[in-house]
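Incident log, support desk, overnight shift.

02:14 A customer reports that sequence design results differ from what the structure should imply. Their input is reproduced verbatim below. On-call engineer (initials T.W.) acknowledged and began investigating.
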Protein backbone atom coordinates (compact mmCIF):
# COMPACT_ATOMS: atom_id res chain seq x y z
CA UNK A 1 0.00 0.00 0.00
CA UNK A 2 1.47 3.35 -1.00
CA UNK A 3 1.61 6.39 1.24
CA UNK A 4 -1.27 8.04 -0.67
CA UNK A 5 -3.45 4.97 -0.33
CA UNK A 6 -2.73 4.80 3.43
CA UNK A 7 -3.68 8.49 3.82
CA UNK A 8 -6.94 7.98 1.98
CA UNK A 9 -7.65 4.88 4.04
CA UNK A 10 -7.12 6.74 7.34
CA UNK A 11 -9.31 9.71 6.40
CA UNK A 12 -12.15 7.60 5.07
CA UNK A 13 -15.39 8.19 6.95
CA UNK A 14 -17.11 5.24 8.61
CA UNK A 15 -19.92 3.70 6.64
CA UNK A 16 -22.91 1.61 7.58
CA UNK A 17 -23.51 -1.89 6.26
CA UNK A 18 -25.35 -0.41 3.29
CA UNK A 19 -22.34 1.69 2.34
CA UNK A 20 -23.92 5.06 3.14
CA UNK A 21 -21.98 7.47 5.35
CA UNK A 22 -22.72 7.10 9.06
CA UNK A 23 -23.60 10.81 9.42
CA UNK A 24 -26.34 10.54 6.79
CA UNK A 25 -27.94 7.67 8.68
CA UNK A 26 -28.01 9.62 11.96
CA UNK A 27 -29.72 12.56 10.27
CA UNK A 28 -32.25 10.25 8.68
CA UNK A 29 -32.87 8.24 11.86
CA UNK A 30 -32.83 10.63 14.83
CA UNK A 31 -34.44 8.15 17.26
CA UNK A 32 -31.29 7.25 19.22
CA UNK A 33 -30.49 10.91 19.81
CA UNK A 34 -34.10 11.68 20.73
CA UNK A 35 -34.21 8.83 23.25
CA UNK A 36 -30.97 10.07 24.82
CA UNK A 37 -32.27 13.64 25.13
CA UNK A 38 -35.57 12.48 26.65
CA UNK A 39 -33.71 10.30 29.16
CA UNK A 40 -31.57 13.27 30.18
CA UNK A 41 -34.60 15.52 30.58
CA UNK A 42 -36.47 12.95 32.63
CA UNK A 43 -33.47 12.62 34.92
CA UNK A 44 -33.41 16.38 35.54
CA UNK A 45 -36.99 16.71 36.66
CA UNK A 46 -36.71 14.90 39.97
CA UNK A 47 -39.81 13.64 41.71
CA UNK A 48 -42.52 15.93 42.98
CA UNK A 49 -41.71 16.62 46.64
CA UNK A 50 -44.18 15.29 49.18
CA UNK A 51 -43.33 17.96 51.75
CA UNK A 52 -44.56 21.00 49.82
CA UNK A 53 -47.86 22.73 50.43
CA UNK A 54 -49.26 24.58 53.42
CA UNK A 55 -48.86 23.17 56.91
CA UNK A 56 -49.97 25.09 60.00
CA UNK A 57 -50.52 28.18 57.88
CA UNK A 58 -46.99 28.24 56.44
CA UNK A 59 -45.23 27.03 53.32
CA UNK A 60 -42.66 24.25 53.68
CA UNK A 61 -39.26 25.25 55.04
CA UNK A 62 -36.37 25.62 52.63
CA UNK A 63 -33.66 22.96 52.67
CA UNK A 64 -30.13 23.86 53.79
CA UNK A 65 -29.02 24.20 50.15
CA UNK A 66 -28.98 27.69 48.56
CA UNK A 67 -31.50 26.79 45.81
CA UNK A 68 -34.67 27.94 47.57
CA UNK A 69 -36.32 31.23 48.56
CA UNK A 70 -39.43 31.66 50.67
CA UNK A 71 -41.33 34.45 52.35
CA UNK A 72 -41.68 32.12 55.36
CA UNK A 73 -37.88 31.73 55.65
CA UNK A 74 -35.20 33.81 57.33
CA UNK A 75 -31.56 34.34 56.48
CA UNK A 76 -30.25 33.65 53.00
CA UNK A 77 -33.53 32.00 51.94
CA UNK A 78 -35.72 34.98 52.88
CA UNK A 79 -37.93 36.75 50.37
CA UNK A 80 -40.64 39.28 51.09
CA UNK A 81 -44.26 38.21 50.77
CA UNK A 82 -46.35 40.03 48.18
CA UNK A 83 -48.20 42.77 50.13
CA UNK A 84 -51.63 43.32 48.57
CA UNK A 85 -52.92 46.73 47.47
CA UNK A 86 -56.24 45.41 46.14
CA UNK A 87 -58.85 43.02 47.45
CA UNK A 88 -57.51 39.47 47.94
CA UNK A 89 -59.79 37.87 45.31
CA UNK A 90 -58.54 40.19 42.57
CA UNK A 91 -54.93 39.83 43.70
CA UNK A 92 -55.21 36.04 43.64
CA UNK A 93 -56.64 36.03 40.09
CA UNK A 94 -53.84 38.31 38.89
CA UNK A 95 -51.19 36.23 40.67
CA UNK A 96 -52.52 33.04 39.07
CA UNK A 97 -52.50 34.64 35.62
CA UNK A 98 -48.96 35.98 36.18
CA UNK A 99 -47.70 32.51 37.17
CA UNK A 100 -49.41 30.93 34.15
CA UNK A 101 -47.66 33.48 31.91
CA UNK A 102 -44.17 32.56 33.17
CA UNK A 103 -42.14 30.77 30.48
CA UNK A 104 -42.02 26.95 30.68
CA UNK A 105 -44.38 26.97 33.69
CA UNK A 106 -47.32 24.67 34.31
CA UNK A 107 -49.78 25.03 37.18
CA UNK A 108 -50.18 21.54 38.64
CA UNK A 109 -52.57 22.21 41.53
CA UNK A 110 -54.57 25.07 42.95
CA UNK A 111 -57.18 25.76 45.58
CA UNK A 112 -58.88 29.04 46.53
CA UNK A 113 -55.80 29.99 48.60
CA UNK A 114 -52.88 27.83 47.33
CA UNK A 115 -51.15 27.38 43.98
CA UNK A 116 -48.36 24.98 43.00
CA UNK A 117 -46.59 25.33 39.65
CA UNK A 118 -43.67 23.52 38.04
CA UNK A 119 -41.12 25.70 36.23
CA UNK A 120 -38.66 24.03 33.82
CA UNK A 121 -35.24 25.41 32.93
CA UNK A 122 -34.69 26.25 29.29
CA UNK A 123 -31.70 24.06 28.56
CA UNK A 124 -31.72 20.85 30.61
CA UNK A 125 -35.32 20.87 31.81
CA UNK A 126 -34.57 21.06 35.54
CA UNK A 127 -37.82 21.47 37.48
CA UNK A 128 -38.38 24.02 40.23
CA UNK A 129 -41.48 24.15 42.41
CA UNK A 130 -43.18 27.55 42.72
CA UNK A 131 -45.82 27.92 45.43
CA UNK A 132 -48.13 30.78 46.37
CA UNK A 133 -50.31 30.95 49.49
CA UNK A 134 -53.00 33.64 49.80
CA UNK A 135 -53.30 34.99 53.35
CA UNK A 136 -56.20 37.46 53.20
CA UNK A 137 -56.16 38.21 56.94
CA UNK A 138 -52.55 39.38 56.70
CA UNK A 139 -53.07 41.05 53.32
CA UNK A 140 -50.25 39.08 51.66
CA UNK A 141 -49.47 36.28 49.27
CA UNK A 142 -46.68 34.11 50.64
CA UNK A 143 -44.29 32.75 48.02
CA UNK A 144 -41.77 29.91 47.81
CA UNK A 145 -39.63 28.75 44.89
CA UNK A 146 -37.23 25.80 45.21
CA UNK A 147 -35.18 23.53 42.97
CA UNK A 148 -35.90 19.82 43.12
CA UNK A 149 -32.37 18.64 42.38
CA UNK A 150 -28.86 19.96 42.76
CA UNK A 151 -27.17 22.25 45.22
CA UNK A 152 -27.11 25.72 43.69
CA UNK A 153 -29.55 27.29 41.28
CA UNK A 154 -27.33 30.30 40.49
CA UNK A 155 -30.07 32.61 41.78
CA UNK A 156 -32.79 31.39 39.41
CA UNK A 157 -35.46 30.93 42.09
CA UNK A 158 -34.85 34.37 43.63
CA UNK A 159 -34.99 36.03 40.20
CA UNK A 160 -38.23 34.18 39.43
CA UNK A 161 -39.87 35.41 42.65
CA UNK A 162 -38.60 38.96 42.06
CA UNK A 163 -39.87 38.95 38.44
CA UNK A 164 -43.27 37.70 39.57
CA UNK A 165 -43.40 40.42 42.23
CA UNK A 166 -42.40 43.10 39.72
CA UNK A 167 -45.11 41.92 37.33
CA UNK A 168 -47.77 42.11 40.03
CA UNK A 169 -46.50 45.51 41.22
CA UNK A 170 -46.73 46.89 37.65
CA UNK A 171 -50.37 45.74 37.61
CA UNK A 172 -50.96 47.64 40.87
CA UNK A 173 -51.89 44.45 42.70
CA UNK A 174 -49.07 44.47 45.27
CA UNK A 175 -46.67 46.99 46.74
CA UNK A 176 -43.43 47.35 44.84
CA UNK A 177 -41.02 44.71 46.10
CA UNK A 178 -38.00 46.79 45.07
CA UNK A 179 -38.48 49.21 47.96
CA UNK A 180 -39.14 46.51 50.56
CA UNK A 181 -36.00 45.16 52.22
CA UNK A 182 -35.65 41.41 52.67
CA UNK A 183 -35.76 40.19 56.28
CA UNK A 184 -32.37 38.87 57.42
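02:41 Re-run completed on a clean worker. Output:
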Amino acid sequence: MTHTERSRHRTRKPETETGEPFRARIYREPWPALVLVLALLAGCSGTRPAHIGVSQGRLAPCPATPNCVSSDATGEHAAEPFRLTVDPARAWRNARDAVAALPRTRIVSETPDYLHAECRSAVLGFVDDLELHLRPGAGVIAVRSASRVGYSDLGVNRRRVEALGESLARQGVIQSTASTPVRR
